[in-house]
C-alpha cells in the first residue's frame, strides 16, 4: 500500500514540476537580439538573432543569425507544432521537437534510401543553469543505415542539452571536445560571461548575398545582402535564358545590410536568377517561384 501511495505522490509531484514549464518554445528562445557564446576546443562560437520573418502560408517563423552568415537563407525555421528545422532552404534538418517527451523519436534527415538520422529525447530533469533552476531536455542523435543483409545498424553521433529559457547549453560526443554555453543574453537579461556589449547593428565584415526567403515562394520573396563599404549597387532578376526580368536596385548604398522584396505575381512558375553587383564584387543566387 505504501508503494502505491509513493507512486501516486511522485506522479503528482512530477506533474506540478512540469506544469511550471508550460511553453515548449522556451527550449529554443529566439527573440531579436538574443545572443549565445559557446566555448569549444577549436575556438569560441557566437550566435545572435539578427532578424526574423513569418511565412504567410503556415505562420512558421524564420530565424536569422548574423554570426556566421549563411548563404542558404534562414538558419532555423520554427513551426506552430514546436518543430525546429536547421537550414530550412537547404538540408531542412528536423533538429528539435520541443514538446517531445522521454523516449520519443523523430527523423532528422533522410540521406538516401538506406541511410538516415534520428533523434530521441533521452531525459528530462530539473537542473541549474547560471544559478537558475530550470528544466533540461537531453536529446541523443543517431545515424542509421540498412546493411546488405537488411539489418539496421545504429551509430551514436552526439547528445545535446536544451534548457528551458536558455536554449542549447551543450553538445557532446565521444570524439570531439564538448560545446559548452559560456554565457548568453536572453530577452535583454545577461547570464554568465558575454563579450558582446554593444547591442547596435554590426557592420558586415564582407560582401554577402544571402539566399532569398522564403524559397520556394509565391508570389513574393525577400533578398538580403550586406556591403562592407559604400558601393554602387545593382540587383537584377533574370529568367533561366538570361533575359532581364526586373531591376530591384540601382543606386549607391553605404556599408550595411539590406533587404529587398521581389514580387513574381505576374510571372509563371519556374527558376529565376538574381545577381548582385557592388563595385568589384558580384554574386548570383537562384530562387524558385511555385504557384
UniProtKB/TrEMBL annotation:
Q: Name one Pfam family in it.
A: Por_Secre_tail
Protein name in the entry? Secretion system C-terminal sorting domain-containing protein
Which part of the chain is the Secretion system C-terminal sorting domain? 213-286
Amino acid at each position: 500500500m505504501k508503494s502505491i501511495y509513493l507512486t501516486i505522490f511522485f506522479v503528482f509531484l512530477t506533474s506540478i514540476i512540469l506544469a511550471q514549464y508550460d511553453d515548449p518554445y522556451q527550449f529554443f528562445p529566439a527573440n531579436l537580439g538574443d545572443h549565445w557564446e559557446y566555448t569549444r576546443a577549436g575556438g569560441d562560437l557566437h550566435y545572435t538573432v539578427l532578424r526574423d520573418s513569418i511565412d504567410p502560408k503556415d505562420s512558421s517563423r524564420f530565424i536569422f543569425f548574423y554570426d556566421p552568415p549563411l548563404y542558404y537563407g534562414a538558419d532555423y525555421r520554427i513551426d506552430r507544432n514546436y518543430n525546429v528545422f536547421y537550414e530550412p532552404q537547404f538540408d531542412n534538418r528536423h533538429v528539435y521537437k520541443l514538446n517531445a517527451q522521454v523516449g520519443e523519436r523523430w527523423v532528422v534527415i533522410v540521406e538516401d534510401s538506406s541511410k538516415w538520422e534520428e533523434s530521441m529525447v533521452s531525459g528530462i530533469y530539473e537542473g541549474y543553469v547560471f544559478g537558475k533552476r530550470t528544466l533540461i531536455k537531453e536529446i541523443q542523435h543517431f545515424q542509421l543505415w540498412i546493411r546488405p543483409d537488411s539489418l539496421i545498424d545504429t551509430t551514436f553521433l552526439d547528445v545535446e542539452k536544451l534548457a528551458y529559457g536558455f536554449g542549447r547549453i551543450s553538445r557532446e560526443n565521444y570524439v570531439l571536445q564538448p560545446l559548452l554555453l559560456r554565457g548568453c543574453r536572453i530577452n535583454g537579461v545577461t547570464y554568465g560571461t558575454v563579450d558582446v556589449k554593444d547591442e547596435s547593428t554590426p557592420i558586415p565584415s564582407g560582401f554577402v548575398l544571402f539566399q532569398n526567403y522564403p524559397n520556394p515562394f509565391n508570389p513574393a520573396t525577400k533578398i538580403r545582402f550586406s556591403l562592407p563599404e559604400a558601393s554602387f549597387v545593382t540587383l537584377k532578376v533574370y529568367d533561366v535564358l538570361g533575359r532581364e526580368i526586373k531591376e530591384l536596385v540601382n543606386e549607391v548604398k553605404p556599408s550595411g545590410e539590406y533587404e529587398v522584396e521581389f514580387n513574381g505575381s505576374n510571372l509563371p512558375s519556374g527558376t529565376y536568377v538574381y545577381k548582385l553587383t557592388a563595385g568589384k564584387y558580384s554574386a548570383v543566387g537562384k530562387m524558385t517561384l511555385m504557384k
